[in-house]
Amino acid sequence: MKLKFMIALLPLFIMWSGAFSQSINDVYDGGVEKMKKKIYDEAIKDFSFVIQKDSYYYNALHDRAMCYAAQNKIDLAIKDLSASITAKKDFLQAFLDRADIYYKTNKTKEALADYEQIIKLKPAYILAYENRANLYIQEKNNALALIDLSKAIELKTNNENCYIQRGNIYLENNKINEAIKDYSTAITINQNNGFSYYKRAQCNINQQKYKEAIPDLNKAIELKIINEEIYFQRANAYNIIKMNDKALADYSVIINTYKTKKPEVYLKRGLLYSELRQYANAVKDFSKVITLDKTNFEAYFNRGEAYAKQGKTKDPLAIKDFSKAIELNSESGEAYLKRGIYYYDKKKNDDALDDLNKAVKLTKSAMSYYYRGAILYEMKKTDDACLDLKKAKEMGLKEAITKSNNLCP
């Protein structure tokens, strides 16, 4: 009789079990929809109901963890992810998400342990190598990052960032050709990532291939990699290959748009203005450098030259700047030479000779010998003058050749 009763109840039990299973699956699906809509509290209630009914429902544990993480309830998120991994030993997504949370909360050791476990479970899982490489990079362990990035690339990743990051490591280690190859591959994968072009430009700049760097800098700027530094690098490249108008335009962008406080930008633009014979503009830029850095030798020296090119009325300012340059750098033969020339022009022969003696000692340039020879000749020291003029002539200075031939036996 009892056996017959149990047999009679069996269909009802099977029906109840099916209804229960269907019920918690429906509740779980409802929680997923709420999570997608970011209604986290309601989603958590659904997932908690499912977990209460089935503590090994690993997807519900994982998704509740993600809701907790979105609410910055980190401890609860880690607890649920750990429980989901207990329920499903090879739950890769749970390992990845837990590793990510560990990393963001500066639990590096725990994050690395999770990536290690993922790779053991699935040695060809590219994302694990990519993510672990990111972690190593953040921890400034480029040697291990390089291994993981190379492994991801070996496994045929299509993630341009892997190539960019490996390129960065190669560039840092001065392996320029390898870096260029990786940045070029990244560009092949995604032609709209301006950072790849920017970094490839750095490689060419590193090799002093400025002409080759410019198209990549242009492309990077076109793709909105726009900041003071990239304009500075392009301006310098234009400057070096003598595309002065373009260099001038970029230096002006840095000054006018970015309101730079970097003295070297004004210094470089000032030198360009001098080269273009716009001496008044050059003086303004060199003066700005001095405002920003009162100990800048080059600014005083070059402002002195710019003043000198504007005629006799600016001579006192030129001499004052050369004197300041000498005060800042007493080993500058060029500064002594320039000041000596102006003393010579003003017939201050003793002062001129003192400066030119120092210029000869420090630079031994043809101009130094020539002007010292000229001063010595004015001072009636013909023999010494001719020694200097002949020396300048031997060094190929045209003025010295003429003067030596005319004055010296």
CATH topology of the domain at 19-88: Serine Threonine Protein Phosphatase 5, Tetratricopeptide repeat
Q: What's the CATH superfamily of the domain at 19-88, by name? A: Tetratricopeptide repeat domain
Global mean pLDDT: 92
- Give the overall shape, derived from the CA principal axes: elongated
Q: Helices and strands, in N-to-C order?
A: HHHHHHHHHHHHHHHHHHHHHHH
Terminal CA distance? 145 Å
Task: Please identify the structural class as seen in this structure.
Answer: mainly alpha
CATH class of the domain at 19-88: Mainly Alpha
Let me know the largest β-sheet: none
What fraction strand? under 5%
According to DSSP, the number of beta strands is 0
Number of helices: 23
CATH architecture of the domain at 19-88: Alpha Horseshoe
Low-confidence stretches: 1-20
Radius of gyration: 37 Å
Helix content: over 70%
Short description:
The protein is mainly α.
Provide structural commentary:
This protein is mainly α. The chain has a domain at 19-88: Tetratricopeptide repeat domain (Serine Threonine Protein Phosphatase 5, Tetratricopeptide repeat, Alpha Horseshoe). It is 79% helix and 0% strand. It is built from 23 helices and no strands. It has helices at 2-36, 40-53, 58-70, 74-87, 92-104, 108-121, 126-138, 142-154, 160-172, 176-189, 194-206, 210-222, 228-240, 244-256, 263-275, 279-292, 297-308, 315-328, 333-345, 349-363, 366-378, 382-394, 398-407. α7 packs antiparallel against α8 (142-154) and α9 (160-172) runs parallel beside α11 (194-206). The radius of gyration is 37 Å and the shape is elongated. 42% of the residues are buried. Mean pLDDT is 92; it is low at 1-20.
